[in-house]
Design a protein that fits this description.
single chain; about 325 residues; alpha+beta; Immunoglobulin-like; 2 domains; five-stranded antiparallel β-sheet; four-stranded mixed β-sheet; flat
């Protein structure tokens, strides 16, 4: 091989390498833009797959530094959350469940439009895609099949990370046989974390009762009735309660089982920013739960730095090839 041939071969090599290097930079740039994730719900009760259940998803807020901030229709809402400085996966299940139920109640009472909706397929699965980093709520409609009613819990989760995430959630589903037998229901109001500042408590609170997601009536809770109220109803209805006005200086959370409802107001205006809730309030209280797992996909969100490097490197290679070819032509 002559010297001229070797130079031409080298020039061609550098030109091709430069083009390939630039293409690599382009693919990295495209991948870096895709930082959305997805959530798949898997709905089953024991070995019974629950298909045909309708779910709706809401974007609730976002993270700012070491805090969660509600946005949109949820802006300024004083719902009791866990330690905001920690990822939601590090909260205890009771706190996460109460937060999910609390936000679900708000969406029903305020008739907040959902961001997306879907129905579980034959495998009991439904997927929500294109989710940017932020806070989300998803809850399902009650489903009756034959004589069995499936009551799903709400899932409150955070899409977090500089890379996209693939989340899987397994919401707890309660089975109930609906009939016309009489059942006694009760609601109880609890004040939390204010033992030394009880002067902040309201004299009374107004609680709205909802039957089958429809407003029913209002009751008043105060010291005279020991912050409790009970009523009787047939077992073919689903009830929930809603505190109409959250007392100043407090946040709110709800917990419930089939027949008992608990409203917890937690004092927030204290020296520490993080609030806690009571760990146990009523015997037999059971809340819905969901396990959320994360499967990470390649870290697209962290790959901005190679883009200029790869592009610049490609231009260098192309330039070297062009220079060698020019020199060869001059000879």
């Amino acid at each position: 091989m002559t010297a001229k041939t070797r130079k031409m071969t080298a020039a061609l090599f550098f030109a091709i390498a430069g083009i390939l290097w630039c293409i690599a930079g382009t693919f990295v740039f495209a991948a870096a833009e895709d930082t959305t994730g997805s959530l798949t719900l898997w709905c089953a009760k024991d070995e019974d797959i629950v298909s045909g259940m309708h779910w709706q998803l809401y974007r609730v807020g976002h993270r700012e530094a070491n805090d969660y901030v509600f946005e949109g229709a949820f802006e300024g809402y004083r719902a009791t959350l866990g330690d905001r400085t920690k990822p939601m996966t590090q909260w205890d299940s009771e706190t996460a469940e109460a937060a999910g139920l609390t936000l679900k109640i708000k969406t029903i009472v305020d008739r907040i439009p959902c961001r997306a909706e879907g129905t579980t397929d034959d495998a009991g699965a439904v997927t929500f895609s294109g989710l940017e980093n932020g806070l989300y709520l998803v809850w399902g409609n009650i489903l009756t099949v034959g004589e069995t009613t499936y009551i799903p819990g709400a899932v409150f989760f955070e899409m977090r990370g500089e890379d996209a995430s693939v989340l899987n959630a397994y919401p707890k589903i309660v089975l109930r046989i609906m009939d016309t037998s009489d059942v006694r229901y009760s609601v109880r109001k609890v004040w939390a974390d204010d033992a030394e500042q009880q002067q902040n408590r309201s004299v009374s609170v107004t609680v709205a009762r909802y039957r089958d997601d429809v407003y029913f009536d209002e009751i008043e809770l105060n010291e005279a009735n020991d912050w409790t109220f009970s009523w009787q109803s047939t077992n073919d209805h689903i009830w929930f309660v809603h505190e109409k006005v959250i007392p100043e200086h407090y946040s709110v959370s709800y917990r419930e089982n089939d027949t008992q409802f608990l409203i917890v107001n937690t004092l927030t205006d204290k020296t520490t920013e993080t609030t806690t809730t009571v760990t146990s309030a009523t015997t037999g209280t059971a809340t819905t739960s969901a396990a959320v797992t994360t499967d990470k996909v390649p870290q697209t969100g962290q790959l901005w730095w190679p883009v200029p490097v790869l592009a610049g490197g490609g231009l260098v290679f192309i330039g070297m090839g062009a220079a060698m070819r020019k020199k060869d032509d001059e000879e």
